[in-house]
Design a protein that fits this description.
Largest sheet: none
Number of domains: 1
Low-confidence stretches: none
Oligomer: single chain
Shape: globular
Distance between the termini: 29 Å
Radius of gyration: 18 Å
Number of helices: 13
């Protein structure tokens, strides 16, 4: 088996695990507030996070070098987690993924003011076409836009902003600092909200929360292995396989069927995102490759960004 084929298979498995993680979020979201789910997901993630932080060999303190950029990234990560968990709870899985897949398009736009990236005509066309695909999924005017749709859009924006900030400060900020702050803020903020939304949880539901935490970390390790085996331009598009997992899980567990506008819009968004990935993988096209550097999965604030995970393990250089 070639290295790229091995990497692609590992990535497909990783995103299958991520999709299963999201199914459990959706099941729990029918009973519990997203604030409660995020709180316990973060709480149960701390032991795994501590193990990874112990492997971080870069000397220094936990004080950020760029506190305002880190505050922006932390706020974006916290927003992404709560918004995505809520969206998964109230919308069909495939529809949430279709909207989240707009993140590479938003990253491309944000790279202009934040990274000084030059976006030429072809990538601009891909961005515009992809955003048109988002409108096809949302169908403004033809259907009611709910809080769930707004939450999915907020998650896409938050994920993009978090990714671009990591790309901005990643060369100077310790990865353990960028990993720890979203976890801590999520824990404190959700803990403050928890008394107002708390619903007692039976042991089996606490077990499901533990599975959510474990699956997020297992999938992260599989994505790392995929990037170690294959090229980024091959691995990054594998995230779009989540729409296939979502279709199957949605049909069998929640009686969800992808409607035609969602299928068409998702196809447009995926095609645009894959085009941007392929353009960035060509030498000389992008100085920063901000989309390839996202490592494929939106950060929920309760599990690590794969790029930070890889840096802590010494698998990739800072930039």
């Amino acid at each position: 088996m070639s290295p790229n084929a091995k990497g692609a298979l590992l990535a497909l498995l990783a995103f299958g695990v991520y999709a299963t993680h999201d199914v459990i979020v959706k099941v729990l979201g029918g009973t519990y507030s997203p604030f409660q789910i995020v709180f316990f997901s973060v709480l149960l993630s701390f032991p795994l996070a501590m193990v990874m932080m112990m492997r971080e060999a870069t000397p220094g303190t936990l004080r950020p070098v760029h506190p305002w950029w880190l505050a922006l990234r932390t706020g974006a990560a916290v927003t992404t987690g709560v918004s995505a968990f809520y969206a998964f709870s109230v919308l069909p899985l495939a529809q949430v993924y279709a909207i989240l897949f707009a993140a590479p398009l938003l990253i491309t736009i944000l790279a202009i003011p934040v990274l000084g990236e030059t976006v030429r005509l072809r990538r601009w066309i891909a961005v515009i076409v992809g955003l048109a695909g988002v409108l096809v999924v949302l169908r403004p005017g033809a259907t009611d836009l709910t809080l769930g749709h707004l939450a999915a859009l907020a998650a896409a924006v938050g994920s993009s902003l978090s990714s671009i900030v990591v790309r901005k400060i990643g060369n100077e900020e310790r990865p353990v600092v960028m990993l720890l702050y979203p976890l801590m803020v999520n824990f404190v903020l959700m803990g403050c909200i928890l008394p107002f939304v708390y619903v007692p949880m039976p042991i089996e539901h606490l077990g499901m929360l533990a599975v959510i935490a474990a699956f997020a970390w297992i999938a992260s390790r599989l994505v790392i292995a995929a990037y170690q085996a294959g090229e980024a331009a091959i691995i990054a598009p594998m995230q779009y396989s989540q729409i296939i997992w979502a279709s199957g899980f949605g049909f069998f567990f929640f009686d969800e069927i992808i409607d035609q506008p969602t299928a068409i819009g998702a196809g447009i968004i995926i095609a645009s995102g894959m085009y941007i990935v392929l353009r960035e993988s060509r030498s000389g096209t992008s100085a920063n490759t901000p989309v390839l550097r996202t490592r494929s999965r939106a950060e929920m604030g309760a599990s690590p960004r794969v790029s930070l995970f890889m840096r802590i393990m010494g698998k990739i250089p800072p930039r």
